[in-house]
TrEMBL record:
Gene that this sequence comes from: fliS
Main location group: cytoplasm
Native source species: Lacunisphaera limnophila
Compartments in which it is found: Cytoplasm, Cytosol
Keywords noted in UniProt: Bacterial flagellum biogenesis, Cell projection, Chaperone, Cilium, Cytoplasm, Flagellum
Name this polypeptide is given: Flagellar secretion chaperone FliS
UniProt keyword Chaperone present: yes
Amino acid sequence: MYAQNYARTYRANSILTASPGQLVLLLFDAALNSLAIARQACDHAPADPRQYEIVNAQLTKAQKIIAELQGTLNLEAGGDFARTMHQLYDYYDRRLVEANLRKQSAPIAEVERLLGEVRNAWSEMLRQQETSVPSPALHHVA
């Protein structure tokens, strides 16, 4: 019980003290976590149909997070790159809707892989910014 409270407090504090760039990274991580849970539940659902409820809940959560990431894009400042990311987030959403409707794990795995690549690129960009000259606050254009 106490461990859960400490973990909850730690998560809350890490969110409150995170930079804008780190908050985006936390969103990526939360979406990837939901996708992993959904994929595993989908794989086990034929043996236990109750798992489909988990699939639906976790995919819905991931879609909301992806929509939030998409909403933080600055299409004016980000130019073609931001527009491409906007389209990519749309693609992720369509694939997750398909996965949920057809109860298939392959589209979930695809989005998980692609979003993981974007997450890793974002993380690397943050790491490089930390080691270079300080710059103004990051705005999510990726």
